[in-house]
Amino acid sequence: MSVLECFKEVLLGREGICQAPRPNRADQMMREVNKAAAMIDMMMDEIGQKLVIDGAVEAFLGRDPGEALKQEVVDSIVRDHLEELGEVFLYVLDAFSAAASEKGDPETAGLMGRIKAAVLQQISARLPIEMQVLNAVLLCKSSGDRVEVVRKAAEGKEAGLPKCEPHRLQLAVSQLLDDMEEKEAIPDRKLLARLCLVREELQNELLNQAFGQGQGAKAAQELEENMRLLNQLLPTYVAAFVKDLISVGSSERRSSLIKAAFVEDPSMDSRAKVETDPRAWVRPGRFLACVQLTQQELQRRSDKSGTPPPASVMERLEAIRRESLLTLQDIAGEHDANG
């Protein structure tokens, strides 16, 4: 899933065709699937008819229609119907395309691929600037490349990349993370992991910029205040999990527990025993925020009392943070030791 698909999903308030629908959602979901299927059939028919007509015109004029005509037709049909596409359109389109491939019909599968690319391209053109930059950031395969894109966007001198300040991008990433982690099922763990890494990188970039401008203390204070506001939204279950990890001495064991929490949700049968509200489950974005908040709170108490914070606890929290980032790199398919 690209950030464009995810953002469209957030805009539409979609809960995910890939999850087991709750009883009161099943009928509505089926209606959405049927609507998407009918739209795909109609678009394929319209594309086929327009290709025949336009192709005949091109042939009459002695010109080879080629691939350019096919792309123009697809773009035109998608543009005509973009406002009518439902919540699950792209997912049903992917399912249809996979079925066509399995049946040995690469031409149909290829045409559906063109439709999907046209939908995402036209959605991209309507996205806020922050989301356009974020999409470019998420296409990068390493932390260093992502930071470079962020800096180029801040300068506003890169062709095809709109100007966007890092703090605006950070707000967009945080909002997208919150929206994804509110969902009962995470449709793309790899994307979620990469978003978490991007947020960490943006925080570091903002602090580095501030220190370079002699405003490091102010930036650090603002970040701490923002984290305190976030603390009011964090479920107690996440804080309890962090507390449990502090008592685990083995780094390997902690990493195993962290990865299990990041990639697995309680099964449907056991959710009632754990928590019925998905916001209480451990999600990587909230988990990292909780670790950082715990570090800040211990340091705040230390500054107030004049007594150094427990070194062993602070070291353990920093180890948990590093292990979490390495786990996210693994989930995201990255192995950048400098990330």
Strand content: under 5%
Approximate shape: elongated
Q: Count all strands and give the number.
A: 0
Count of helical segments?
15
Largest sheet geometry: none
Low-confidence stretches: 7-23, 267-276
The helicity comes to over 70%
GO biological process, one term: regulation of DNA-templated transcription
InterPro entries: PRDA1
Overview features:
15 helices, 73% helix, 339 residues, mainly alpha
Structure at a glance:
This protein has 339 residues and is an all-alpha fold.
Task: Describe the 3D structure.
There is one protein chain. This protein is an all-alpha fold and 339 residues long. It contains 15 helices and no strands. The chain has helices at 3-12, 23-60, 66-81, 89-102, 106-126, 129-138, 143-155, 166-181, 189-212, 216-231, 236-246, 251-263, 271-274, 284-305, 311-331.
